[in-house]
Amino acid sequence: MLFNSFQNEVLEAGCDEAGRGCYAGPVFAAAVILPEDFFHEKLNDSKQVQEKDRDVLRSVIEKEAISFAVASVSVSEIDRINILKASIKAMHLAIRALKQKPAFLAIDGNRFTPYPSTRHICVIKGDGKYANIAAASILAKTYRDEHMRSLHLDYPRYDWASNKGYGTAFHREAIKAYGLCEHHRKSFNINPETPTLF
What is the CATH architecture assignment of 12-188? Predict the structure, then answer.
């Protein structure tokens, strides 16, 4: 069972990212402010939710959220500043884009750079504990998956429609055969011979 938010004294946004461990594509992040009575039985960490249910949840969240925003940081920026800083930057961009400004942030994970004038807490595996973080994980994941499917149209050899840029066996074999393209993260020093944890 998910708690709706970490605290209920002030307006709170949940934040999460998607695509941090991928070989290719931008990193996405979302920030979501849910109403106090929000509930959906299928809402959970996006990695625990089937794709068809994530798409349903995305529509529900976008309809019922008090405010939500999704942002991304490009591969070139990831390579320039590193993936951790890029993930946090994407969260900051999403928070900045919220139509209603939260006074408190619940961040998935254990690292975050404070957002100006806003208190926050980092929650390890927060997307499985708090509904607003879970909702952010659903939006970040579905928006990123949609983006990777669009990149697949120009680069079908890497099968991004299926692997979404993660280092699957097929993706690694394609890199061995065709090399890297403009959408691969060069700073990751990708070695297609090395099995990935993702």
Answer: 2-Layer Sandwich (3.30)
79 is in an annotated binding site: no
| CA–centroid distance for 133 within its chain | 10
185-193, Cβ contacts within 8 angstroms, sequence gap of 24 or more? 185/22, 185/23, 185/24, 185/75, 185/78, 185/79, 185/83, 186/79, 187/78, 187/79, 187/82, 187/83, 188/23, 188/83, 190/23
**Do the annotations mark residue 55 as ligand-binding?**
no
Q: Dihedral of the CA atoms 73, 65, 37, 49 (nearest 10)?
A: -50
Is 36 one of the annotated binding-site residues? no
Count CB atoms within 10 A of the CB of residue 49. Answer: 20
pTM of the predicted model, to two decimals?
0.95
Given this model, what pLDDT does residue 47 score? Answer: 87
138-170 pLDDT, tens digit per residue, is 999 999 999 999 999 999 999 999 999 999 999
Q: How far apart are CA 77 and CA 70, in angstroms?
A: 17
Domain ranges of the chain: 12-188
Quick one: tokens of 28?
Answer: 């996405």
Gap between the Cα atoms of 182 and 176, Å rounded:
15
How much is the CA Rg of the chain, to the nearest whole Å? 17
**Cβ of 40: how many Cβ atoms within 10 Å?**
18
Q: What is the pLDDT of residues 173-196, one digit of tens each?
A: 999 999 999 999 999 999 887 755
